[in-house]
Specification:
heterodimer; A: 236 residues; 6-stranded mixed β-sheet; 4-stranded mixed β-sheet; 6 helices; globular; B: 305 residues
Chain lengths: 236, 305
């Protein structure tokens, strides 16, 4: 089903969202809501369904269940940073930004000023490092007037300075009343930016915690998930 | 080394199977197209041997992907690397050499073989990173990336046009215009990831018309200098130029619609054959364009709405 309009005060609502690839179930009966001006974190192991959840939310993947929002067409208000970025082999960073601006009919005349990561915009984007590609894609969606930001692994491969800039961007987006969804493997960044964290395990939301429970969740993940698994290696 | 080549063969066969065609038929169709194309080339111009030589050698440069070469270097000795690259290049130019020999072009045949061997020694990749300016930077991406990737082809068309003027061969001039339009058509042969369609704040209909408008505008910008030069020297061939231009635009729009008609998959064999037949019998376009257009709307609906 595709996103539809809702009178609900929540920015986005997911009702009984499920997704399967053939017989392989990736998401099972997920019901969540995302409010305006709130930052949500989605954590889970590789393959737990985080990216699929984001793709269903954006409409890039078909699914069962409902995605409702206050917008006529949710996708037109979403800035989505995919985890698997694609850049054409003969396109410069500047041209990539132009492509994403054109797609949303944005006339951007201050591209150089807004190049806050100091990227070499006149070089081919495909030759950028992983972190630079991430920063370029992030810059591109920041040039668009979006209400919802879905950032799949925004900190992946990014240097420490840019890491801090991304965190500050997320704080500013929240202050502007935008809804932000982030997935990350780096728990400290989520602790710093999120208001709520949803834990996804085997395609289901196993826990949802607020700020006051972040430390407990981190300890729990360390003790039960990390320690228990590394112990199995019996390192000598 | 044998394993490497058998793996390459398997990869090609998989590509053909993905296209919905049995590999053996794929090779047969390729052969028919190759023979037909070479016959046509020798029919339209006396420069056919040189065009053929350039085409064959330019195909070998496509094999010089730096990533692939690095991969082979990591796993094989430099001696084996040379053998692999030399054999690959010889395989690629072999059909071209056969045709050249059939036309008694001994010297060109030997030159092509030697050049292909020399190119296999060269570590210089055809992909260089200096940014080539294009007139399409405001509206990425098809013509922007296509122009840069196909610059040698566009230069070849310009060379043919100059030869057409020098040797007073209007047919060659018309061929150069058709070549530019064919190159434009090739920009629509591969599909972009769904994300780059999804980003557009447009309905499927608006998206398609936006793409069609850009395709017509950009291809006209690219082909207009060739047409103007042709008209300047062969104004009496203006009618033929107009027909080539209009047909080229129609084929271009068909290729664009064909891409999105099966999006995010690629065109399958029956549709591919119909598209191919349209080159021999253009009235097919009258049915093909509306059919592709309706399919495009269906395919784009889930991504854009």
């Amino acid at each position: 089903m595709s996103p539809s309009t809702s009178t609900d005060p929540n920015m986005i609502r997911l009702d009984h969202l499920s997704k399967a690839y053939g017989g392989h179930i990736v998401l099972r009966d997920i019901s969540l809501s995302f409010e305006k001006g709130v930052v949500y974190g989605i954590v889970g192991e590789n393959g737990s369904g985080k990216t699929t959840l984001f793709k269903c939310l954006t409409g890039l993947e078909s699914h069962h269940g409902q995605v409702t929002s206050k917008f006529d067409r949710l996708k037109d208000h979403v800035g989505y940073l995919p985890t698997d970025l694609y850049f054409f082999s003969k396109m410069t960073g500047r041209e990539y930004l132009q492509l994403l601006c054109n797609a949303r009919q944005v006339v951007e005349k201050e591209m150089d000023l807004k190049n806050i990561f100091d990227l070499p915009l006149d070089q081919y984007a495909a030759t950028y490092s992983t972190g630079m590609k991430k920063k370029l894609a992030l810059t591109a969606i920041m040039l668009q007037p979006n209400e919802v930001f879905i950032l799949d692994e925004p900190y992946n491969g990014v240097d420490i300075h840019s890491n801090m800039i991304i965190t500050e961007i997320i704080h500013r987006l929240k202050a502007l009343g935008k809804t932000v969804l982030i997935s990350s493997h780096i728990f400290s960044t989520l602790k710093e930016t999120c208001d709520f964290i949803h834990v996804i395990e085997n395609g289901q939301i196993s826990r949802s915690v607020g700020r006051d429970e972040f430390d407990a969740l981190e300890k729990e993940m360390k003790d039960f998930t990390v320690q228990e698994k590394v112990n199995r290696l019996r390192l000598i | 080394m044998r394993q490497y080549f058998s793996l390459q063969l398997r990869i090609i066969n998989r590509h053909l199977s993905d296209f919905g065609i049995r590999p053996v038929f794929g090779y047969l169709l390729g052969l028919i197209f190759f023979v037909g194309f070479s016959g046509y080339l020798w029919y339209v111009t006396s420069f056919a041997p040189y065009i053929f030589a350039v085409l064959g050698l330019s195909l070998t440069t496509m094999l010089a992907d730096p990533g692939k070469i690095t991969f082979i270097q990591q796993h094989f000795s430099s001696r084996v690397l040379f053998k692999i690259r030399a054999l690959e290049n010889l395989f690629v130019v072999f059909p071209f050499v056969i045709v050249l020999l059939m036309h008694h072009e001994w010297l060109v045949s030997v030159a092509v073989m030697l050049m292909s061997l020399l190119l296999s020694l060269s570590s210089i990749s055809p992909t260089f990173n200096s940014v080539i300016p294009t007139p399409f930077f405001r509206n990425p991406f098809e013509f922007l990336t296509g122009f840069r990737k196909n610059l040698p082809g566009l230069l070849l068309a310009a060379f043919l046009l100059i030869m057409a003027i020098v040797y007073s061969n209007p047919n060659l001039g018309l061929f150069s215009v058709a070549l530019v339009l064919l190159i434009c058509l090739s920009f629509y042969m591969s599909s972009e990831p769904a994300y780059l369609v999804w980003i557009h704040h447009l309905s499927p209909t608006a998206f398609l018309w936006y793409k069609i408008r850009l395709a017509i505008l950009h291809s006209s910008i690219l082909v207009l200098p060739y047409i103007l030069v042709c008209i300047l020297f062969y104004w009496d061939h203006g009618f033929y130029l107009l027909i080539i231009y209009l047909l080229g635009i129609l084929y271009l729009v068909t290729a664009l619609l064909g891409k999105y008609a099966f999006y995010p998959l690629t065109m399958n064999l029956p549709q591919g054959i119909i598209m191919g037949l349209a080159f021999w019998f253009p009235p097919i376009l009258l049915f093909l364009i509306p059919y592709f257009y309706r399919r495009c709307l269906l395919q784009l609906q889930p991504i854009l709405t």
